[in-house]
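To whoever picks this up:

The nightly regression suite flagged SpoVA protein as changed. Nothing in the input moved, so I suspect the structure step. Input below, exactly as stored in the fixture:
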Amino acid sequence: MSQILIAFAVGGLICVIGQLMLDMAKLTPAHVMSILVAIGAILDGLGWYDPLIDFAGAGATVPITSFGHSLYHGAWQEAEKDGLIGLISGMFQITSAGISAAVAFSFFAALVFKPRG
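Regenerated output under the current build:
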């Protein structure tokens, strides 16, 4: 039960930070999303995101900061093996499953639900 509370608290804190950026800094949702992705990549580059995942579990892997972590992680792993080409291909290779799932689920949701127009 405590792991659920930790995940909820950490994921909630990440969301609160995003909401504060929207409300106080008057940033657009696209700016907030880009900043949170960049923060996730920076934290992974500093070696802090993996310990956060170990501590918070889904509280750190579900928010958008995890996408930045995945981009950096994939790029760095492939760059060590294949150099510059790996740097570019690694970002797409590690995140392709999540992006493909989002596209497929969005398509099926559009078939089931009537979009507002």
